[in-house]
Amino acid sequence: MAQTMWAGRFSKEVDSKVNDFNSSVSFDARMYKQDIKGSVAHATMLAEQGIIDVGESKAIIDGLNGILCDIESGALEIDPTAEDIHMFIEAQLTSRIGDAGKRLHTARSRNDQVALDIRLYLKDEIEEITHLTLELENTIIDLAKQHTRTVMPGYTHLQRAQPITFAHHLTAYAQMLARDLSRLADCKKRTDVMPLGSCALAGTTYPLNRRRTAELLGFSDITMNSLDGVSDRDFAIELCSALSMLMMHLSRFSEEIIMWCSWEFKFIELDDAYSTGSSIMPQKKNPDITELIRGKTARVYGDLQTLLVMMKGLPLAYNKDMQEDKEAIFDAVDTVKLCISTFTPMLATMTVLEDNMRNAAARGFINATDCADYLVKKGMPFRTAYKITGTLVKLCIDKNTVLEQLSLEEYRQLSELFDEDVYDAISLDTCVMQRNVEGGPAPQAVEKQIQLLEQTLKGYC
To answer: Are the beta carbons of 354 and 428 closer than 8 angstroms?
Structure first.
């Protein structure tokens, strides 16, 4: 069993259950690359500052690189009885190179070491999640380009409201994801600050060059208060908040896909590779991926709540409670990556049933507003036009027909302002084409929106 680093202070062994309770290696082992990277930079800086011998620094760095190669090749397994990944690597280093390995921890505490590791790790994860989100954004945009003239009903209160295009609907989600990308980029700025050199809480008497270490590790800045440097987890909470919003958007999109592939809508059909069947009903084709995403959203929300509640009552500086940050943020990161990487190909392979979308739009009186606007453009006050159009809708319902199929005589019984051009004014295509205001559903407006989105995405590439 690995010996604890504080063994000299205690006269008896810690109870085995306490060791198990205290251990974090089962989940922080994933940060082995970041821990080794941070240690290499620290050893380099210590030698440059004359704090340790250059030869010892080289032995430390070579030993650390050997440990990294052995872990990645499978030649070295991480000891599950180790207290954490930091102590495991240090113990391995000392066993390989002797006392020189013990000098690595000079002018460093596990408090600032773990704060460094998690920042390095989350910087890498933000980049990967950004890449996955960009892939999803591009998939949505490619799909939207194919459907700028595919008419469908737009909804409020889940009631058919006004005609839009499928491209317009899709780019609404592209806008949400664009904001998610912006939040991830913003969060990364506050994660990109190096805490190493804060030590346990009060810095050190050694002549460190913290900015040199930051340069070696690719950080843009260093933390400016040693107490805050070891106890700040805002960056993890902020990332989890951004991921929660990203999951909210995926969940909303998933909910619509669930509805759209039902027989009640039948706007799309999911590819067989991204659907499941029933154990008892042979006709079923279930959208399990989207249902799971909807469920996993709650999981990420729970991770955010864990982080917020964990930190809310902690005095400065480091407290053991903060060990709980990793499982929560790691789970949020893993869940988001899994959901996006599954959602994207599911969306790319689905079949869009354009005729069904248009038929739904035709039967929902979603051109009623355009009928009222027709009268307003001929001089009638909107409220009067609204009432007349409502009467026409009721007439259609009574006759089991639609506005386009009423006779001109039936129109003129309610207003002499109606003429033959009313049929062009209320056609679904006209209703969509004339909504050419910036941000609207007209093909030209959506195409402009797509262009602007593509320009925005270039900033993340």
So the answer is: no
Q: Which domain holds residue 71?
A: 22-106
Query: Residue 43: which of 124, 87, 118, 101 has the closest Cα?
Result: 101
What's the pLDDT tens digit per position in 348-365?
A: 999 999 999 999 998 889
Is residue 169 annotated as part of the catalytic site, yes or no? Answer: no
- Is 407 labeled as catalytic in the residue annotation? no
Catalytic: which of 73, 157, 279, 407? 157
Sequence-separated (6 or more) residues with CB below 8 Å from residue 127: 188
Residue 254 has pLDDT above 60, yes or no: yes
From the candidates 16, 220, 262, 278, give the one annotated as an active-site residue.
278
User: What is the phi-psi region of residue 410: left when phi exceeds 0, alpha when psi lies from -120 to 50, beta otherwise?
Assistant: alpha
The structure's pTM equals 0.91
Does residue 78 sit in the same domain as residue 169? no
Question: Which CATH number covers residue 162?
Answer: 1.20.200.10
Structure token digits, residue 309: 């509640």
Instruction: Provide the residue type at 36 as one letter.
Output: I
Q: Considering the domain boundaries, does residue 11 fall inside one?
A: no
Q: Is the same domain home to 260 and 335?
A: yes
Number of domains in the chain: 3
H helix or E strand, kind and range, residue 160 = strand 159-165
